[in-house]
Amino acid sequence: MHAFINRVSYCCARDRGSEMEGIEHRTVEVNGIKMHVAEKGEGPVVLFLHGFPELWYSWRHQILSLSSLGYRAVAPDLRGYGDTEAPPSISSYNCFHIVGDLVALIDSLGVQQVFLVAHDWGAIIGWYLCMFRPDKVKAYVCLSVPFLRRDPNIRTVDGMRALYGDDYYVCRFQKPGEMEAQMAEVGTGYVLKNILTSRKTGPPFLPHGEFGTGFNPDMSDSLPSWLTEDDLAYYVSKFEKTGFTGGLNYYRNFNLDWELTAPWTGVQIKVPVKFITGELDSVYTSLNLKEYIHGGGFKQDVPNLEQVIVQKGVAHFNNQEAAEEINTHIYDFIKKF
């Protein structure tokens, strides 16, 4: 029996490997940096933007699904991640630079517009792309992070600190080098597994002076069914090389992004949007976002918000945990345009 199970799992892994081999990898010059892009398929472009601490690989299921349905699925490693260049200065990770990368990437694909699908920090960047260059986006499927309305009276991190205190994870990520050192103490593998497997709702707090049990105090030895040892090993292999600084620098620009986007205070996002989150998502269950999403504020800021989906029993990384459901939601929405 064991031999049979091993053979089946080997066959599945091999088949999956051959499917993944159909994904092409290349490097594109964008906005002064070299960007790694994974892509598959032909047809209208669907551009996928990952979050923290993730990679193009977070979209593996969506790339295979959408490319089989007549779309060209394109997933970059964002600036500072994976095989894309990581400029050394913190301010190189502000919203203008990262949106600049994406506009150059879209232009390099030879298309005027893309369907946008984004998660976590990718979702925040997605909102900036829709804000600065709505002409580039046909429709937007946004996962986990809704539009974050700019409060003209308080800078973003200052507002989070006022709400949750210094141990809120965004506040803890601010000081250059500090969180990197604390992550190094527990190791890359621990950090990635800890964050990716967390199902803890509400705002994440990290005890001062250490990563500690991090985002997931109830971390299990075994992985959830949607995250294999091979998946985790791929993430670890990339973050072992790059470290976490690139990804953390996005958080370190929250206040600068607040300053830079002053001209867009009160702006409405006019792109058609479908929003999907898990009911256990730590973003959805923090920052008074449930009230904003369901109470009319979100629809006011995004008048073409067509649908809000809350997935039962699903946590933050819904594009991986509930991949087939997400694939269906994406396709059902974008095929209308």
TrEMBL record:
InterPro entries: AB_hydrolase_1, AB_hydrolase_fold, Epox_hydrolase-like. It catalyses: (24S)-24,25-epoxycucurbitadienol + H2O = (24R)-24,25-dihydroxycucurbitadienol; an epoxide + H2O = an ethanediol. It comes from the Eukaryota. Pfam families: Abhydrolase_1. Pathway: Secondary metabolite biosynthesis; terpenoid biosynthesis. Gene3D superfamilies: alpha/beta hydrolase. Residues 44-150 form the AB hydrolase-1 domain. Keywords: Hydrolase. GO terms for molecular function: epoxide hydrolase activity; hydrolase activity. Its EC number is 3.3.2.10. Homodimer. Epoxide hydrolase involved in the biosynthesis of cucurbitacin and mogroside tetracyclic triterpene natural products (e.g. siamenoside I and mogrosides IV, V and VI). Cucurbitacins have cytotoxic properties and exhibit deterrent taste as a defense barrier against herbivores. Mogrosides are nonsugar highly oxygenated compounds used as high-intensity zero-calorie sweeteners; they also possess pharmacological properties such as regulating immunity, lowering blood sugar and lipid levels, protecting the liver, and acting as antioxidants and antitumor agents. Belongs to the AB hydrolase superfamily. Epoxide hydrolase family. This is soluble epoxide hydrolase. The gene is LOC100812169.
